[in-house]
Specification:
CATH class: Alpha Beta
CATH architecture: 2-Layer Sandwich
Strand content: 25-35%
Low-confidence stretches: none
Helix content: 25-40%
Strand order of the largest sheet: 1-2-3-4-5
Radius of gyration: 13 Å
Distance between the termini: 34 Å
CATH superfamily: STAS domain
Number of helices: 4
CATH topology: Transcription Regulator spoIIAA
Number of strands: 5
Largest sheet: 5 strands, mixed
């Protein structure tokens, strides 16, 4: 039996940039948890959402479709979605297999210290 991490969203905002870090899987079970928290933060025009998936367990096909919808919603309001992933993580492998680096700006980092800096944590 695989025990998955409890989903969590941490956000911080600086002007028009919202940095958010997701923990747990990104799938059909957790999207209803993540979506209202991020949409509430990103409802204004011109917002850039820097979404750190370094602590995510994995992203499945439902998670990818959700990221694409999130990106489209931000773009409609003049905003942008940028992703950050840990190198050699299951999330990075999924995004690479689907060639989503052609669709999303993706920053890669090596360890959790870089993730904490990206998320504005100390």
């Amino acid at each position: 039996m695989v025990i998955e991490q409890i989903p969590e969203v941490r956000t911080c905002r600086l002007d028009q940039v919202i940095r958010a870090r997701l923990s747990g899987p990104v799938n059909s079970h957790t999207i209803p948890f993540f979506q209202p928290r991020l949409e509430g933060e990103c409802s204004e025009n011109g917002i850039t959402l820097a979404l750190d998936l370094g602590a995510a367990d994995y992203v499945d096909s439902d998670g990818v479709r959700w990221l694409q919808r999130l990106q489209a919603g931000l773009a409609e309001r003049g905003g942008e979605l940028r992703l950050a992933v840990r190198e050699r993580s299951p999330v990075e492998r999924t995004l690479n297999l689907l060639q989503l680096d052609r669709t999303f700006p993706i920053e890669r980092y090596r360890d959790d210290a870089a993730a904490r800096n990206l998320a504005g944590e100390r």
